[in-house]
Amino acid sequence: MTASTDEIPEVDYVSGTGIPIRGNDIDTDQIIPARFMKVVTFDGLGQFAFFDLRFDDDDEPKEHPMNEDRFKESSVMVVNANFGCGSSREHAPQALMRWGIDAIVGESFAEIFAGNCLALGIPTVTADHETISELQEWVEENPHGEIDVDVEAETVTYGGTTVDVTVDDAQRKALVDGVWDTTALMKSNAGAVREKADSLPYIASDD
Amino acid sequence: MSEGTLYDKVWDEHAVTTLPTGQTQLFVGLHLIHEVTSPQAFGMLRERDMEVAFPDRTHATVDHIVPTADQSRPYADDAAEEMMSELEENVRAAGIDFSDPTTGDQGIVHVIGPEQGLTQPGMTIVCGDSHTSTHGAFGALAFGIGTSQIRDVLATGCIAMEKQKVRKIEVTGELGDGVEAKDVILEIIRRLGTDGGVGYVYEYAGEAIESLGMEGRMSICNMSIEGGARAGYVNPDETTYEWLAETDAFRDDPEKFERLKPYWESVRSDEDAEYDDVVTIDGNELEPVVTWGTTPGQGVGITQPIPAPEDLPEDKRDTARRAQEHMRVTPGETMQGYPIDVAFLGSCTNARLADLRRAARLVKGRKVHEDVRAMVVPGSQRVQRAAEEEGLKDIFEEAGFEWRNAGCSMCLGMNEDQLQGDEACASSSNRNFVGRQGSKDGRTVLMNPRMVVAAAINGEVTDVREMKEVNVA
Lengths: 207, 473
Prior knowledge:
The structure holds two protein chains of two kinds.
Chain A: E1 13-21, H1 28-31, H2 51-54, E2 76-79, H3 91-99, E3 103-106, H4 111-119, E4 124-126, H5 129-141, E5 146-150, E6 155-158, E7 161-164, H6 169-176, H7 182-187, H8 190-199, H9 201-204
Chain B: H1 6-14, E1 15-18, E2 24-27, E3 30-33, H2 39-47, E4 58-61, H3 78-94, E5 97-99, H4 109-116, E6 124-127, E7 141-144, H5 147-156, E8 158-161, E9 165-172, H6 181-192, E10 200-205, H7 207-210, H8 214-222, E11 231-233, H9 238-245, H10 254-266, E12 277-282, E13 289-291, E14 299-301, H11 314-327, E15 342-345, H12 353-363, E16 373-376, H13 381-390, H14 392-399, E17 402-403, E18 424-427, E19 443-446, H15 449-458
Parallel strand pairs in B: 3-4, 3-6, 4-5, 6-7, 9-10, 9-12, 10-11, 15-16, 15-18, 16-17, 18-19
Antiparallel strand pairs in B: 1-2, 2-8, 13-14
Helix pairs in contact in B: 2-5, 6-8, 12-14, 12-15
């Protein structure tokens, strides 16, 4: 049984308004605290994204971009360095995606987090500190301004400005060609996989 | 590009083909699963009507949500019970071995793999947990993955990956008294940064690493991810083989051991291997390291002053300011004397038998400070049994430590073991992120297990080198 790759959309382009989330080393425990991971599906995680930064002990909203009306419809998150470090929990990008995020632009990303984003079809594109700071400021001033993330051309356009960004080669190819769902892709090589398994010393020695 | 390293060899050995994305399809020799990150992946498989491709290369345990006090079923926490039931059903349907608590083999996934001999040199090992890097201590290529990737591995036995660079971290010399593997890795992260390892696999080498036992090597590889490196490893040697020979996998099958040993030897990095980067650290100079902030890279030698944010590189200042406010520490002072409310001895970093033995020697003849709640959570049921048989449980309990059942516990506070309010915790775990131990105002100070004991006894962060072992044997 192999799933069809026809259903996998190409993600060569993401457009939407922005939301700035400032700070380096924002870890996945902040993005989704562990107590919200006691679930067997990802449904409904969106409301818990950045929960402890957004709500106080009585669950009253605190000052946070994700609580502001002007950013409610945002889909492009603009972050700083080493975003998504820490735990491998896919619950983190799942929560952001379910909140409404379709693309993340930042200075740098932790590897497992970026891989998890790719598995969900969310581009994680990077630019230097200055470029990101300017974009964050622009988003603050233009919460309803459109940002175009062109994955294929590796550019971000906002308010008449176009800046170069970097997209990891494999990520770009996967998103642009719509082959980011790797299950079907790898499943089609099942014969070669079995052969490889049987050739490994530690598996062969089990026989 | 690196050449002739263990990483290159294990990668080549497991590469199936190149995918249209340019990524390599890499065969996975061992897939470890647990209750938190796997249920959604099994759900995705069911949606697509797919089966588990290699159930015999897959092994399950329960660790994150398992209660460490009352483990009778159903669990008091409904959510925990649901996650456990879901895992039981998934592994039963797929025919996957499950070290559940009734087997006596349950424990933290990164403790049970090595102790059962599932973890072997030259393997590719994945798990939906970032501390999978632990298994690199055996010369395996081991890394954490997300849930969609778990689906990939369950369905195909493979993972899609890009090859990374290799940085050799050579720790020369000899570690001083009171200085442990944990201090080495905290120092590495402090120097290279929490994102210094992004894009790299770390090879740990040098006399100070080679002279460590397997538990110490695991502590170091465990925290590779805190330095941004998804995987870290130590080349296998006699220390590795001695451990393996005693495990379930080889204890009764010395012939299999002999058959595999040449493969293990063959994956060692060549003498003339090429690395993308080499970093050298003088092990003689190290002292116990503790964290003062809210990332594992915000550490400091126990006799050294906490840095002022303005003395740090510009991109570290904001994080440092916020961290110092949260932790309520003062630049210029040392961490000695920092009052603690809780002492946690546990986690996949430091809850193996050797860790508990070392800690117990310091506990003997002493009492936990009256204002401190202290607990020991063994890494596995086997560690727990062995420690109880050796009398370690009695030593800890007589001193006032709580002795718990095996699990992840207060490392991440997914069960009932959590910090309350703004409690400060001396912790042998791996992450001091805000909120990590279950309270968003909680304060975590990472340190080695004997430093945790010293803090528990004195009620404050203490230089363990100033405490003598009381000889009451």
